[in-house]
Amino acid sequence: MRLWSLHPSLLDRAALVAGWREALLAQKVLAGGTRGYTNHPQLHRFRAHPDPMVAIGAYLSALQEEATDRGYRFDATRILRPPSAGTRSRPVEVIPVTSGQLEYELEHLRRKVTARAPEHLPHLPTVGTTPRAHPLMRVGPGDVEDWEVR
Question: Is 54 in contact with 81 (CB distance < 8 Å)?
Fold first, then answer.
């Protein structure tokens, strides 16, 4: 399971589609709908959120919006707790992520893209720059996150 901290616009087609599928699995785990993957390290930051289901809903919504922008059809009705619309809604509390985690994920994505979709490489930030984070994430200083499996 890979729940990218990177902004969805940075993901190639395969990473975006796989990220959607894996985030739907994460949503099912967080909702108690499966006994598998319950201790997966990628879920720690969602479980630490004050409302994990709202957080995963916001995460999925950003992936769905990016997919729509690219002409893909990700079924938004599969998001159990989408972000609320309207003036009464409160913004979703962000999840912190370190710049080191983003840089690690960018290099991980770069290796994958080099092998499967080299035409996507020009869309990735240059080495040594901190890439944009997923809209749910707020970037702070630091090394690779403790929950990351290297």
Answer: yes
> Residue 98's closest CA among 132, 138, 149, 43?
138
Say if residue 51's pLDDT is above 90: yes
| Complete DSSP assignment for 116-150 | H-GGGGGGSPPTTSPPPBPTTEEEES-SS-TT---
Q: Are 80 and 53 in contact (CB under 8 A)?
A: yes
Q: Cα-flanking dihedrals φ and ψ of residue 139, to 5°?
A: -85, 135
Helix or strand (DSSP H, E) at 13: helix 13-30
Write the DSSP string, 36-93. TTTT-GGGHHHHTSSSHHHHHHHHHHHHHHHHHHTT----GGG-SSPPP-STTPPPPP
Using DSSP, state whether 6 is helix, strand or coil: strand
Categorize the per-residue pLDDT at 88 as very low, low, confident or very high, splitting at 50, 70 and 90. Answer: very low
HSE (side-chain half, CA atoms, 13 Å) at 129: 6
What is the reported pTM? 0.92
